[in-house]
């Protein structure tokens, strides 16, 4: 397995694992909320061991990247393209989770020809989407401010432990967003910019990319239920759907071995 290094490109922190001998397109991994590039560490090691260069940014306001306000969906999408160019990526296999899907898939559609394969997990990309309860609270003025102001380290630990299998280090990395007022506000800005009708112009664009897609889901995902995985198959014919039993929204933390097997096998087959 390859070593994972924490690096920086401008204000964006990112992790990278480089193979001894590279084969296949690099893999760009995009985390969601709450999280950071640290969530991908084990998978990145496996990818490098299989000959793939693996790169995962900390989105602005997450992990070791400072907020870049206003922290809107659109600005995160634009930042993805700047990051790709800055670190010298041309064509990539794209792996996304949660908000990383909304950001990464929109970026891929805006830049056709860059993504050569897609692994989507715990996310959606549908104009008729509906937000789950926690997101609705964050999007509500007053209620969202109260919620982010009350999240402390023990509260983060309780929230994550109730929805997945997390180490103390993973919890600490996820809490970094809430260590500053700017970070807390950036969470509200992101969710409040997340109007699903913005995806109306993207209808059909994911399928038009004409690349292999794997929808990799936890069977017990309460934030993006497995029906979302099968929706990807409806929207993108030929999508491979894998539902991991006894795993929830954070499937990469809940069953890293199953995820390693499915992602590496999918990418090998995709070329």
Report on this model:
The chain is α/β, with parallel strands linked by helices and 271 residues long. The chain has one domain: Rossmann fold. Helix content is 41%, strand content 16%. It has an eight-stranded mixed sheet with strand order 1-2-4-3-5-6-7-8, with helices on both faces. Helix 10 links the parallel strand 7 and strand 8 (240-244). Helix 4 (133-139) packs across helix 8 (181-192) and helix 5 (143-150) runs antiparallel to helix 8. The radius of gyration is 17 Å and the shape is globular.
Radius of gyration: 17 Å
Strand content: 15-25%
Structural class by sheet pairing and helices: alpha/beta
Biggest sheet: strand arrangement: 1-2-4-3-5-6-7-8
Provide the CATH superfamily: Alpha/Beta hydrolase fold, catalytic domain
- Determine the CATH topology: Rossmann fold
Order of helices and strands: EEEHEHEHEHHHHHHEHEHH
CATH classification class: Alpha Beta
In one word, what is the shape?
Answer: globular
Number of strands: 8
Helix content: 40-55%
Largest sheet: 8 strands, mixed
Mean pLDDT: 96
Q: Number of helical segments?
A: 12
- Label the CATH architecture: 3-Layer(aba) Sandwich
**Which residues sit in consecutive blocks of at least 5 with pLDDT less than 50?**
none
The rounded distance between the terminal residues' Cα atoms is: 20 Å
- The number of domains: 1
